[in-house]
Design brief:
Elements (H helix, E strand, L loop, with lengths): L2 H38 L2 H7 L2 E3 L4 H11 L3 E4 L1 H4 L4 H13 L6 E4 L1 E3 L2 E2 L23 H18 L3 E2 L23 H16 L4 E7 L14 E2 L3 H6 L2 H9 L4 E4 L3 E2 L12 H10 L5 E4 L5 H10 L3 H8 L9 H13 L5 H17 L5
Helix pairs in contact: 1-14, 2-13, 2-14, 3-5, 6-7, 7-9
Organism: Candidatus Ligilactobacillus excrementigallinarum
InterPro entries: GH, Glyco_hydro_3_N, Glyco_hydro_3_N_sf, NagZ_Beta-hexosaminidase
Protein name: Beta-N-acetylhexosaminidase
């Protein structure tokens, strides 16, 4: 190699390395900036970010509570969508965001079919229909198109988190969860999940794998206790397949159910179980945001009453990053007390809030 060529090669290598190092340092700086933000927050504010609260239906009251408690997110239900134009709805979402010092997750359950919040006000979507996933499962491209269009509608309305897709599989058409599933076997459901997760997230809307570790044929935890004796071996061979597919597709969040999985932890519902969360975090290697199902459901309120425990505190002890709970007024100080009494480590709280803020940045909420 001539000296001229050698010098040119050195210059090109230097430029390439410089570009690479620049990109790496930006990435590292961004991570450090979020870590610094977490460290500068009060313990109370960090815990508040872990609350993804169900809306009361009263936007003024929600704005007041967001401002007072510094909550992390709000989940919208049917009444939040009714009797308003798209402009009025978007203005409500803007008011929620303006009430928060840190931009909010604003989420809803838009699965399609029997769980479709957008159906509560057809004028928001020009009378568009949102079919259940199993109604389109003869054509995977239709599924992908439906997921993309739905996420785009949510994003346009100011919603940045969808509690979908359903990764549960049931072989019993009479079971509670069956109408909300893909309606196919474990591997076919995994293929579906692998396609729709990145499609939803491409629209700057967080996707949520639910309901870990899989309902199967278990009963409805909205109305009471439900359990399964299915072995961990069978879970690994069957129910975990769609969740693994979603995790490999970089799902933003995983929602944990309230089913008691007797062969993993017969003492606690999955959402309150350190053993179940450990399986998700370490066996399935999930590093994103873990959120509970609604802690106001009867399975949890009855369990907490029976065991004389605070469900929100136990959910954090179990390892959840976010709590779907409206009990923030009492829950935030209770969790803070548990941290100060060394029942929950401050490092765990910091790790959860870090994951939350990283996701908010990914969604374009943090500048």
């Amino acid at each position: 190699m001539s000296n001229q060529k050698r010098n040119l090669f050195i210059i090109l290598c230097s430029l390439f390395c410089g570009i690479f190092l620049c990109k790496s340092s930006v990435s590292a700086a961004t991570d450090k900036a979020i870590m610094k933000q977490v460290q500068q927050m009060s313990l109370q504010d960090r815990i508040a970010q872990m609350y993804f609260t169900p809306s009361s239906g009263d936007n003024n009251q929600m704005c007041s509570d967001i401002k007072k408690y510094h909550l992390g997110g709000v989940v919208l239900f049917g009444s939040d969508f009714q009797n308003q134009t798209p402009a009025q709805f978007k203005n409500k979402m803007k008011q929620l965001q303006q009430a928060s010092s840190i931009p909010l997750f604003i989420g809803t359950d838009q699965e399609g079919g029997t769980v479709s919040r957008l159906n509560d006000n057809p004028q928001l979507t020009n009378n568009r229909q949102f079919p259940a996933p199993m109604k389109l499962n003869q054509n995977m491209q239709q599924e992908v198109n439906e997921a993309k269009q739905t996420a785009a509608i949510l994003h346009n309305l100011g919603i940045n988190w969808n509690f979908a897709p359903v990764a549960d599989v049931s072989n019993d058409p009479n079971s509670f969860i069956y109408p909300r599933t893909f309606g196919k076997n474990y591997q076919q459901t995994a293929d579906y999940i692998k396609k729709v997760i990145p499609t939803i997230q491409s629209q700057h809307v967080a996707a949520t794998l639910k309901h870990f570790p899989g309902y199967g044929t278990a009963g409805d935890t909205h109305t009471g206790f439900a359990s399964t004796n299915k072995s961990i071996t069978d879970f690994k061979k069957e129910d975990f397949l769609p969740f693994k597919a979603g995790i490999q597709a970089h799902a933003d969040a995983v929602l944990v159910s309230h089913i008691i999985i007797n062969q993993i932890d017969s003492q606690y519902p999955a959402s309150l179980s350190p053993k179940v969360i450990n399986v998700l975090r370490h066996n399935l290697h999930y590093s994103g945001v873990i959120i509970t199902d609604d802690l106001g459901m009867d399975a949890i309120t009855k369990f907490a009453q029976k065991k004389q425990i605070n469900a929100d505190v136990q959910a954090v002890k179990a390892g959840n990053d976010m709590l779907l709970s409206k009990n923030y007024a009492t829950g935030i100080p209770a969790i803070e007390k548990a941290v100060k009494q060394h029942q929950i480590s401050e490092k765990q709280i910091n790790n959860s809030v870090y994951r939350i803020l990283v996701l908010k940045k990914k969604l374009g909420l943090l500048k």
